[in-house]
Amino acid sequence: MKRTICAALVLLAAGCYSSYQRTGQHDATVEPASDPDPDPDPDPDPDPDPEPIEDPVIDDPVEEVCVETAFAAWRVVPDVLIALDRSNSMADTPPWPPMWDTIRTALDGITEPPRDAAIWFGLLVFPGPMCRPGDPDPVTGCGAPVPSDINVRVGPDRHDEIETELASTSTCGGTPIAETLEAAGRYLNGLSDHHEKYVLLATDGAPNCNDALDGDSCTCTSSYPCSFANWNCLDDVRTYAILDDMCADGIKTYVLGLGAAAEWEAVQAAMASHGCTDDYYLAEEPGEIARALEDIAADVETCQIEMYCSEVSHPDEVNFYTLPGPVLLPRDTSRTAGWDWIAPCGPEVSIGLVEFFGVDCDLLFADDLANLEPTSGCPTIGG
Questions:
Q1: Hey, what domains does the chain have and what are their CATH numbers?
Q2: Is the pTM of this model over 0.70?
């Protein structure tokens, strides 16, 4: 659509800009008139009966019209791959309800609509398919995930798929966090949606399942002696290195330590630090787990929109309106309300990024931008 905002007379020294009860002032320049001849030649023989002089005819003033044209904009959506521990201990702690049931219920709540449109979720459970429920073989129980084992691929509206997948999954095996994160990183790096990318790691233990470690000298994650079962050695160094690599690739990791994971708080904190979020959560009761997941979801959700800069005439000629009305949302560089540029359009920028703040963030994104109208072509109001 196009909207005419203001008409200004070019003969005036200043123009007006009025839009929905908000007015801004714009400068205009008028060339000065030429100075009169300081010594004009006198008329030696003035006409004693001159003809009457008519008033000069002045053309109607030319109008300068400011026209806004609507352009397309879309919400910035993050990708969140849930890496969920299904090791044998998840069926045991807390005693009731089992942690496995508690976390599945909590994840069902966090991924339901409309959030599964604002965040693109995916699911990877570990250990992988080599792990067979009830299998006593700890090596088999440490079966490492690989990229093809992504249980639910990241995308919009994944709630039902995640719910169905978790309902048919049971617990087994150890805690191969390093291999799981490595697989998660490869998968997310292979996506071409250009979204911000996160892993939400939920585990009730510490990383193990590395049979290359020395069982006689390692820190053991089990009461069963690691000298006889080195796959229970703490695999922290390799895990931190993988998290560092993921972070360098732009993939950040949140850590949710469930139940008995509190015994390994230092490891949970270090994983979050190497995962570049510095956010780790320890939770045991259902309410605590639900609140932790809500905090993480709120942290990754954004009030940002993107647009093609080819549709924007100039970054200083962009305005946003809410419907019905429409009502102007002014730019606010204090970032307490309204909007501001995060990545302004320019010669080297093909996709611009804008963020909304305060109450305007809450109102606009509650209805998924259905009532937002972006326009280009008239000077931005606010600052």
A1: 77-300 (3.40.50.410), 303-376 (no CATH)
A2: yes
